Batch of 4 targets.
Target 1
Amino acid sequence: MTTPPSPAQQLISKLEHTKLSFQYGEDAHASVRQLCEEAKQYGMATVCVRPEHVLTAREALGHKTSVVLAAVAGFPERPVSRQDHEECPVIGACYSSTKLQEITTAQGSGAEEFDVVMNVAFLKKDHEIGGEFTLKELQGLRMVADDMPIKLILEVDLLSEDELRFAIAQAVEADIDTIKTSTGYLKEGIGATPERIAFIRKTLDDLGAFHVGIKASGGIRTLEDALAVQAAGATRIGSSACVAIAQAALEMPVNPSAFSDLY
């Protein structure tokens, strides 16, 4: 009889180990290889990297691994403040053709999933005037990605509740697989909270989109953070602190109640 996974293993199997920023002088390829080895060591769900690092990650992971390789598309180059974004939109604001090209290139290098940033400024305008840019872009992304999963990054800190509902509805209509909360690149952003995850889950359920997952990302740094968003409905958890979270989970008592007491 197969032993069921422990609560710690269940949590770790939802982690997406992420490396999207680098210090000056850092060997990016060495850091990505380390990322992949850590994900394999702990049995995490996914590694998430920039398109230019997909080939390095694919070589490091190999082809006989349960760790999925995800690539971002339309991702900002550097953190941005809310004021700067409002003056000159950055979050997801590159050309649709750039996102499509990044997906195509990443596919060819071995990516299996895509975390694509929604154009926040155009979403807001679509919501205001009943436009279709967001839906058309998402449909194009869906077509190019074929049957590979797409996680749509909404940047929830920049959206009102009505805009968030609208964005989720557009994603569902375009057959997006997972709603992701944040890039983590908005300087004042809070990112994923249990309340936001619960709101997204309810919105999806109200639309009948019970199959659509939720990736909590942005501001998740501790085991307590991860457990809280998991309890609220997150099916994936993205963080650059996945090793610390996994280690803390494995150090907890085996009794599942030890986990439930944390949220």
Note: The radius of gyration is 18 Å.
Target 2
Amino acid sequence: MNTTGLKAIIIEDEQPSARRLKRMLEPYPVTILEMLPSVEMAVQWFADNPAPDVVFLDIQLSDGLSFEIFEQVRVDSFVIFTSAYNQYAIKAFELNSVDYLLKPIEKEALERAMHKLQHFNRQLEPSPDASLIRKILMEATGSTREYKKRFSTRIGQRIRTVDVDDIVCFYSESKGSWMRTREGRSYLVDTTMEELETLLNPDKFYRVSRKHIVNIDYINEVHQYTNSRLRVLLHHFMEADIIVSRERVKAFKQWLG
């Protein structure tokens, strides 16, 4: 990629850091279109504007972690992370981004990142996968957490609980989120698909599209659907048309192992 005339945005909730990075980019042929402090504002900006060439992205924003942006909108931009995680996270993120700049950003590190940007093929899929980012962050920082073990649903005047091991998939339909059980029944859950992603163990559950989160234990077959998409067949939910969106195919294959 030729860096002549690059368009960029900075997503950073610490205004002094954002302004400092903008000043450091002045010697380069980069136009800063916007500086955004939050996940919410970034999602809205991407929904209303064409994707820039590159995004300078902090991990921890004022209203959450930045991987939530990629869960809500498609971002066809190369990403240069800026944060303070340790060296293991840095190496891991380099697999899915142009570079990772450790704060406080040094002039030489930024220069290397801009040089690397010149050599990236624009046809490569630039947007990192949110679930991989989450997994890398947790492993690299040594953080552990308890994932949801069961979900409850209301059936008339009764409340039923369902173990996550018995859930084939979650899906979105008629403006609601549903869970499909291995009994072949579907139940409404009072949780958004975005919230479900944060509650479920990413080793077992994967969001293949905006409409479906599948449990790896119930995947029956995976077929080529088109040249760029896959179709997933699940046990106990064979009638569902579950298509892996084009931008998630590569990460889905990695998740499958």
Note: The chain has two domains: 6-141, 150-256.
Target 3
Amino acid sequence: MDLAATSGHIPGFPLMMNLRELGGIESADGRYVRYGLLYRGAALTGLGPEQRRIVDGFGLRCILDLRAETETDGREDYVPEGAEYHRIAGMYDAAGNEMDFSPAAVANFLTMNNDPMELMGALYTSMTHSNPAMHALIDCLIAGKAPLYLHCSAGKDRTGVAAALVLALLGVSDAAIVREFLLTNEYRAELIENPPAELPEWVTSSGLWARMNGVDERDLLAVFASMDEGHATREEYFAYEFGLDRAALAALRNRYLE
């Protein structure tokens, strides 16, 4: 598969960086997400001069960093001139503490919330309600602060949920959102398919390695189910969660679709 031709990959960046744009994805009403407005990927750290030049060319107005504060020390983003930078953690534990995917943080989440077999789905669905980062994302879109770059550390889980939220808001079908979400596994295939030799065999045979380093459709389906629970339509979810009435949704779709 030619990622550069089919999935919004930005040439000049390694595939592992998972950096792509959402332009060109079809909405259910036959329109398409406008090109050059919505980008997703990993943190903008350690960029070389040419990569910085490419990022400058995005014309970013906003960078939304979904990492926990502990993930940013010594790994700060490159912020182009003219871009606002906002770091708002995308994930929290039950006590309201910022959470990353470190072993300690995951263990803490498990003790307070979930069955280990359902960990990733639970983490994903925890992002869909009363989440400050997702509300900040929608506020940026309403204010027209695009082009926008959305990221966490690897650009796959927190970023994947946020990108799915944006696409759902724009009326993209669940099937198309899933296809975009699963591109992460193609971008990160080299890592997923080559686990360290010292890993216990059960980690790879159980699928745990792939799930922790790629993405799994089941987790995104859990997000859809969480959004739809108690709501007759997806529009009702956006009205309840973000206060977006029909006119506000239409305005956003007119701004970001063509």
Note: Residues 174-187 form the longest helix (14 residues).
Target 4
Amino acid sequence: MEILYKSTRSNTPPVSASKAILTGLAPDGGLYVPSRIPALPKTLLELSALSYQDLAYEIMSLYFTDFTEDELRACINRAYDDKFDTRKIAPVVKKDGVYFLELFHGPTIAFKDMALSILPHLLVISAAKNNADKRIVILTATSGDTGKAAMAGFADVPGTRIAVFFPDGGVSNIQRLQMVTQRGDNTHVAAINGNFDDAQTAVKNIFSDKALAAEAGRKGFRFSSANSINIGRLVPQIVYYVYAYCQLLAAGEIDECAPINITVPTGNFGNILAAWYASLMGLPVHKLICASNENKVLYDFFDTGVYDRERPFILTSSPSMDILISSNLERLIYHLTGDSPMRTKAFMESLSENGQYEISQAMKEGLSDFCGVFVTEEENFEGIRRLYNGTGYVIDPHTGIAFSAYRKYLEESADDTPTIIASTASPFKFAEAVVGAIAPDAVEGKSDFELIDYLSDLADIDEPYAITDIRTAPIRHKTLVDPEDMPDDVRSFLGI
């Protein structure tokens, strides 16, 4: 049965999956949501016998209904191949009584690879399906990981170009090096004088700039997005939560249909929204634990029903979560309103104009599947250190936020439901913070790569190729711009 995609902000006619993927953001500024949430296609026991690639097809084919089986399987097989360093693609590791879903085995050692490895292939097919004769220009704001993963996916893909904007000083040095050394004649990277929210807002404004779109169109370009606002990013993320459950089931760790909790370190809300969609499809989820760092805008929202971005912006050791405007929350708000685009639009306008909005009591009651927990820097470091000292297992600061949030939740709730923690990045991307948590006296005087060497010895793990590659790679991108100058930077990149 066909699934179409509606905007969260208007009653404009729904569009096909390929059109939603190609467009990225709806013309009215809203996000695309599926017209219905499909049920899991088979029993969990049946699904647990499948490879990652076959499970991905079972899930994605329910959402991308205008793709043929051959088209979708081709996208999946090109995405989830030997660029991942494990055949399982996203293995589950049990440590300290919880299950870490390792989402960092792709080419850029962060969870964004799970969706951004497939998005370029989905986009190329979507363009063909919609007779789009213009070259696709991907515009992306990143808080650290999306940018590199997107560029790695789109580099030298025919008919595409990609421009990435990141906050200068707002990402780890390894994240920065991964971006500014990116190869590919169709790639462009620029640091901005501002934070991630400034970059994200400026990118959204470019998408809404009809004059710039027309100018680009005359030169044969059309804009699209690789941020998690693109439904082509969100749907592939559903797969790994189902896959994680199936791994536990196949290993005899849980019984079929037994409930689980899922803890997700959350900034832009896309990763945990995918887990919620999985639960709506029939995955037995008891509680979704939304883990925040000291930029705890989501924690406060779940606690009070008020979303308020008017607060100090804090740079933390988990920079991919240093976000005050969680774009994907709009999709949840839409569903909580009973799929009302007018009410959703009013909330988003209030956020834009007043910096906040407050949901109704009835909507707040619809958040019962979620639990917000926030973790301080000290608590994060203590959790990383505790896990290493107890098990020898090393996690990055984003996963550390999730682990410490889960420990706080467990202490307060005594809920011993088996819990999956989304492990979103390799510790090698954040060696300074990880070594600083485990062995603080070892940090002083060491360079980034000396800290990586130290961490490799500490964890008894070889560094990933993604790190080895940037040790000697030349710096190719040196642009620094103000947010208001980003449209001109895009013009320069495209030669228009």
Note: Residues 92-109+233-462 form a domain with the Rossmann fold fold (CATH 3.40.50.1100).
